[in-house]
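Sanity check

After download, print the first record. It should look like this:
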Amino acid sequence: MKYIPFLETYNKWADFDFNRYIGNISENDVKKSLAKEKPGSLDFINLLSGSAEPFIEEMARKASMLTIRNFGKTISLYIPLYLSNYCVNECAYCGFNRSNNFPRLKLSMEEVEKNAREISMTGMKHLLILTGESKTESPVSYIEEALVRLRGFFASVSIEVYPMDIPDYQRLFNAGADGLTIYQETYDRKIYDMVHLSGPKKNFEYRLGAPERSAIANFRSVSIGPLYGLGDPLREAFFCGLHAEYIFENFPGTEVGLSLPRLNEAEGDFKAISPLTDKKFVQFLAAFRLFLPRAGIALSTRERPAFRDNLIGLGITKMSGGSSTSVGGYCGKPSTPQFEVSDHRSVEEIAGVISEKGYDPVYKDWEI
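Expected structure tokens:
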């Protein structure tokens, strides 16, 4: 099947007058959208809008039902491992910004294995490896070698690195990577250009096409999302939903996931431009589940412990635990983190909370 790149879908909606449309949404419109078995794009906007706020509890109940129907009462566990913090980009919101003055680190293969052993002792079988965006310090060959070293420790290894062309994604897939996480950061072109001051990451379109390139390269799963706090939250959520729907429709063999990461304190003290409140977070989470019943939804340790606990059962399917956002943060001296973690609980503690909520913590649901 020949696919049409997501950029064409994005461009069709780029000039949509969200403010005018949202201003005309009635509670009756929301009720109709909420009642639909398969909400469309405009229904999704209705569910994200302020007019849907009186229906958040009803949305949450339906979201919970759909999640159980499609995923059972399970929450998959994963953990990140940062391999390097070298970066050539100047992103205003990121602790790894090349302009920030702090010691740059890169794990040797021996250190990669040492961290892997430490993590594997927690029972974690799903690993997400991350690097700063530097092809010089973290070339494809470095990531490839790390994947080969990690395969013996984990059932599944996903990558969150710089965007690549299809042959490089295929190379990493062959080395053992089965999933890609890549955040567009913001789907607003103007804000994207404003916060990405210099470096390859300024190329909005190349980053936008990365998820589909990885799907073409046979990655089993692709996870996307904006960084809430940059663009208008409703627009960001809407385009993320469109993007996820596009991957579902064009690559039916690919599992699609999304996340709702919110800006946390990072090196440089960047302040959120358009914050996403807790109330809207819950509403968006439910709206995503109603619009995309089969999408995985991950919840990171950016969020506070009590808030994370209360979201179990509302649409979440994956949670991280025992996380470090520093290079090699599971062994040796702590380094400068990419962002501050809000939930410092161990893997065992997170699993215990999931069980207390009546859900099963899943350490392994896939084998490379």
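If your output differs, re-run the checksum step. Summary of this record's structure: The radius of gyration is 20 Å.
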